[in-house]
């Protein structure tokens, strides 16, 4: 019930009425005739009452209209805030867009006014705009999903309701569209689909927080592996997956991910279902500490294939050894004069054949070595040794090789004992490889120097030649398997291409490494680093004091 | 052997590959005087060893019918041959494999491929390191 406000017009009316009454009464209307006087007063009163009532009603209506208008205004603001509103005329040209529309799409009013909405909408169903127009013109509301293109090209999914407008004569005047942005919902649906796919992958997927290692997500395969369900894993951490979980080891494993040194780490683990390869990645987040993702992939098949391949290579290589022995043996004996002395040409040819039989033998040995390394079966017998003896032996063993290329091999820096834990056979293999390469790439009459340098905790054995050198481009690949550097020396050709990769592995197994420096035309130096066996020195000192 | 007795070493060589046998024979004869009996299988060697009376046995490891170690064990059962030093010849030379063969009681292991010209020298130096063999009266050779 609207309150009747006592307005000015009421007051004026009442005063006027009373005045007139007073005038009348004082003017003697009453004296002329009391009936007339009273009739006048009563009529005036009635008129005043009726008129007041009319006023009151219209005020009330006005009030109501204003309130309704305020309500509509309020609703309009609310809708304006929430919806994208656009109005088009009968020619389908935009005549109005609300602020919400502009804010959501990033356009300015100028860019939209006068345009056909088709220009900022995407219709995947052919003929849709025409169908919508027909429906609207027939007086029906159209409702559906329409994709908008925002300024800048981003797509926005909207749920749109379009209402046609007609004037009083029934002529079509255009339509008003009200839209809500449902993009977030659409994305959520797609993401749900993705999660569903992730859920069913055969690989195990574990997602957990860094630091606390609390689980955020495990896919079905992961849950099966650990034997948990969703309500269980939500409250668990990675440490709970195994009673013997080594927290320190795990921290150590993920540390390079957290500080950004590595993008991914991987390890192999023997699990109930066979060998698994585990990849762990750190995914950053703008809003939080990010996530660690661990993916388990069963590689038992892959490993089986590798094993079969390696076994095959090994079998074949062993098979090759016998015939190579016979070839080398027969040719060697020929050269040694076991048969009659050979004429010069025959001697030469037999030499060539013998040398290549040697090469074959080396290649077969290298292949077998690499296969052993790959299978983790290369055995090392580390003993405390004096590197000076090692180097002296290596130089002596390879002096013949040097002679063949007219190159002198000598040693330097062997004045004091140098103790390290080495597998002597393997280190001899390494030094032989390096010295023979050095001799091969040296100029006739040149020399190869094997020197020993000492640092606080390491020794460096350097094999230096003054030959053709190695091109910068080749240095990076030099320790790759089956890689031969391009070189222009006529004496090139011998050498397996496997040797240096084996050298690298052997050095790594010794806790050391091999590096190469070279300058084309000047020469190359291959340097082997080995850790000092401090304990051996202590032992020696004790002995010296006792002795 | 260079032991000044003028004794010509009697070598029993057990090897199933013919080419390897030929090369070994030529190499040994080229580098020194030897009396050589070559057998193509473990079974044949077992049959003929006692009668031949070897000073040293060269035993191939990987053979078709009987492997080297099996033949070695069989030799241990034959009185006349049981203490003759045996040298294994093999392509398998990882340290642990060599250790295994040595632990059977072999005198030495020679790796294949071997240097034919050095074969005799290798055999001789191995024998020199061996504990002294008792005097053996060479039986009449049946080869």
Question: What do you see in this structure?
Answer:
- Chain A is α+β, with helices and mostly antiparallel strands.
- Chain A has five domains: 8-78; 83-186, 2-Layer Sandwich (Beta-Lactamase), CATH 3.30.450; 201-298, Beta-Lactamase (2-Layer Sandwich); 303-374; 383-538, Histidine kinase-like ATPase, C-terminal domain (Heat Shock Protein 90, 2-Layer Sandwich), CATH 3.30.565.
- Helices cover 48% and strands 22% of the residues of chain A.
- Chain A has 18 helices and 18 strands.
- In chain A, the strands form four sheets. Chain A has a six-stranded antiparallel beta sheet, with helices on both faces. In chain A, strands 8-7-11-10-9 form a five-stranded antiparallel beta sheet, sandwiched between helices.
- In chain A, strand 5 (155-166) and strand 6 form a beta hairpin.
- Chain A starts with 7 loop residues before the first helix and ends with a helix.
- Residues 484-496 and 543-547 of chain A have low confidence and may be disordered.
- Chain B is an alpha/beta fold.
- Chain B has a single domain, classed as Response regulator (Rossmann fold).
- Helices cover 40% and strands 17% of the residues of chain B.
- Chain B has five helices and five strands; from the N terminus they run βαβαβαβαβα.
- A five-stranded parallel beta sheet of chain B has the order 2-1-3-4-5, sandwiched between helices.
- In chain B, helix 1 (18-31) crosses helix 5 (116-129).
- Residues 133-143 of chain B have low confidence and may be disordered.
- Chains A and B meet through helix 11 of A and helix 1 of B.
